[in-house]
Every structure is written in C-alpha cells, then in structure tokens.
Fold this protein.
Amino acid sequence: MTLRLAGLTLGLITLLATPLTHAGHMLDGQLLACGNDAPPVITGRYNKGANGDTPPAEKLVEMGRKIFFDPGLSASGQQSCASCHNPAHAYGPPNALSVQPGGPGMDEFGVRAAPSLRYVHAPQNFTEHYVDLMDNNGQDSGPAGGRTWDGRVNAAREQALMPLLDAKEMANRNLSEVAARLRKAPYAAEFDQVFSPPGTHILDDEEGVISWLTTAIEFFEQSPEDFHPFTSKYDAYMRGQAQLTKQEQRGFKLFNDKNKGNCATCHPSVATSSTVIYPRFTDFEFASLGVPRNRHLPANQDASYFDLGLCGPMRHDMQDRPEYCGKFRAPTLRNAALRHSFFHNGVLHSLKEVVEFYVTRDITPQRWYGKDAQGHAQRYDDLPARYQGNVNTDVPFKPLPGNKPRLTQQEITDLLAFLGTLSDGYEAPANHATPAKRTTTASLASHSTSSR
Ligand code: HEC
Ligand code: HEC
C-alpha cells in the first residue's frame, strides 16, 4: 500500500495484521476468536532499530504515547492528538463542542465530531461488499470498515498523518515540517536511539522519521489498557462478575429487540465476527440516518455545502455513487454515555436526545429539522433532496401503528440505563469489592495479554 504525500512515498513500511495467532477464548460458554487485535508486524525498509533488529513492541508503544501527547508536533504548539482524543474521556473530546478547534491559531473548525478512539483499534479494511462471517445468511451487507466516519483510510499509520497535515487541525504544511518538529521534541534523542540501526541516525532521514513516528502511533493505538481495556460493567457482566440491575436488563432487551430499539442490528451487543473477543457495539457498516444539519458549523454557512460521508467531499473515490450519499460508519456505543456531542457533525448533545431522535425523527420532524420558506419542517435537511431516499426508515425510526414512537419515555430511560453499562472504569460495588476487584484485575490482565 502506497501513500503519496508531498512527494514522499510511504510504502516502505508495511504493517500487516498477523493471521489468527491463537485459538478463541471461552467466554460464558461461547467461543469467541480474536484476530485483528494482534499487534502490527513491521516489514519494509524501516524495520530495524538500535539492536539491528525490530524495536520491541513495548518501546514502540512508549514512543507512540509520547508522540500522541506532544503538542509540539502542531503548528500552534498547543495541540496534540490528545487534545481531541483525551484519555480521561475514553480518548474522545474533553468538552461539549460539536467539533474541536485547531489550525495555527487554534481558531479553525472542521466539520466532524472527534470520535472516541477506544474499540476502533482494529476495524476491518474498507470494503464495498461486507459479509459477516457469523451472519449465517452470508449476504453482502454493503460497505463496511476503514477508519474515520467515512472509512477513507485503512492503516492507522496513514490515518495519523491526516490530523498532522490538516490545516484545521495540527496544521503542518508538509511532512518536512512534521519531521522538523519531531527533531525538536523532548524525546528526539530517545527516538533517534531506538529507531536508528547501528551506525546511523534516523533523525537525519526524513522518510525514516515519518515512518517510525506513524508506526509508533499505530502501536500505541493497539495498547489494550488504553484503547481496549474492556472494563465496563457490561464486560464484567459477560465475565460473570457483575449483575445488571432490573432496569439495565430491560434496557438491554429493548436494545436488542428488533421491534423496539433494534439498536443491535448496527451496534452489535454480542461478538458477530471471528475477529473480536467482546462485542464492539459497532459493525463498522454504513448507514444514512438523516442526521440534522448542524447550523453552527462554519462550513455549513454555505447552503450548498453538504458532508455526504461515503460519497464525499472528504472522501474522493466514490463521488459518483449516489446510493452512498449521506452514509456514515456506525460508531461504537462503548463509552457513548461519556460523550457530550453525538453523530458525525456533533449536532446533538445528550444521549437521551439521540435516542429520542431515533424514535421520533419521522413523527415530529419539526423538533429536529430547520424550516423551509413556508415554515414547514425540512426533513433530512442535511441531504440534498436527490439523496433523501438513502435515509434508513426501518425500526427504530419506523413508528408503531397510530404513528406512535417505538419506545415510551420509560423505555427510553431503561435503554439509557443499559447504555450506561458500556462505559469503561466500572468498579464492583463496595460489599463485593475485595474479592470482585481481585478477580477483575487478574482476569483483565490475562485477557489483555491474550488479546494482543
Ligand atoms: C482537532 C481535533 C483532532 C486532533 C488534533 C486529532 N484528531 Fe483524530 N480525529 C478527529 C476527528 C474530527 C476525526 C474524524 C475524522 C473524519 O471522520 O474525517 C478523527 C478520527 C481519528 C481516528 C479514526 C477513528 C475511527 O473511528 O476510525 C483516529 C485513529 C485518530 N483520529 C487518531 C488521531 C491521532 C493519532 C492524532 C494525532 C496525530 C489525532 N487523531 C489528532 C479529531 C482530531
Ligand atoms: C441502521 C443502523 C443503525 C441502527 C438501527 C441504530 N444505529 Fe446508532 N448509529 C448508526 C450510524 C450509521 C450512526 C452514525 C450516523 C451519523 O453520524 O451520521 C449511529 C450513531 C449513533 C450514536 C452516536 C454515537 C457517537 O459517538 O456520536 C448513538 C449514541 C447511537 N447511534 C445509538 C443507537 C441506539 C441507542 C440505537 C437503537 C435505539 C441505534 N443507535 C440504532 C447506525 C445505527
């Protein structure tokens, strides 16, 4: 795979997900294999470090962490990856802004909400024809996979260059600027030491600096304790270490029920392919939900501007595919309860509102959309009319007979209680603290090691 940027070819390191390295795990009697979670493998020109051999994975993770938290790599000198992907917020945004500021003066805004980086560490590569292995009907369910809201990049190391070079984010003008900033970093000497084969200095080799910088980020983004800790109450429940309350159980049922929430269809609550241990609460498939236009985004001041996801304009390869317009990749719902802005344009600001949107979108459109000249609600106002047929109208959008929402207020409350069990950092209640905690820590440790 080759990425051409500013005249530099970055095809020299190839990171390949290793094939299935170990047998599945037994979990509550269910066999759940893991594969994609394996650490990246390094081949290509920049594959040897200080020992004349591949640098140890722990060293790559450690360097990746330093890079991820380094504001010195941005033109403003104020923005690191962690500014938008904050560890205290499940590597999502630390505030309620729809989109995060960036650029050289920290006063530019893009068009998309910063996602949590948890549990999206190992998406399948983008494909137009996804067939879920455990879905026994074997049907082609269309586009799935890739990274970002529109799946336009596969490799994490290629993704990492996007914010570094985005004029509204870390705003480096080219790769030379990125490399120059890294050479001035407090950890530059260590970087040189770790990644220079004997008798050489990697810092003198711009291509080498970029390759190792992005590789280190890729390794860091695979780190289990940071990016897939599986420490939610729901995980504890799956491990038999916690009980869901009656309300959470009701919410879980509604989440899965095809006639009620139907959420699990796109946000699976059990492992659905051979590549995961625990469910990720996304199938990485694409759908058009008719999300309202976010009138506060600067780009949307231009009435003719539309972010159409799969069909562009940020993604370039499918602009002639009208059937894809308006489709975005389903995000994970793990840690969604910790977020303060939702959907690709960050237009909604509470999880309750999101669930209400799902069940009342087509019943009370005036609550969600802007008005046309005649004062009527302009349904699906963030999509040109010709693409509105792409909008999903199945359950839970589809009203019950009598034009009633799929979920009552009580059911919405129950569903929210269940979504709350998907946040990491669950601690067993005090009366069970000592034994439960010990088990949790021990089994987490074993899961972390085996899932790598
Ligand atoms: C100014 C805020 C901002 C900064 C800084 C930033 N990101 Fe992001 N990040 C975003 C947004 C917004 C998206 C979604 C982009 C899209 O859909 O086009 C994103 C998407 C991602 C994704 C894809 C996640 C997924 O769901 O597939 C990864 C991985 C990521 N960022 C890593 C990084 C790394 C590594 C850095 C630092 C080199 C970084 N980000 C810096 C805002 C930011
Ligand atoms: C047809 C597939 C589908 C179904 C069914 C579905 N979702 Fe989604 N969900 C998506 C997609 C796609 C997005 C992103 C849409 C966008 O931003 O344009 C999304 C976004 C979300 C978000 C925003 C998360 C974030 O990080 O911004 C939440 C919360 C959510 N869904 C919860 C639910 C719940 C709860 C249900 C059931 C009531 C549900 N979804 C049913 C596909 C689906």
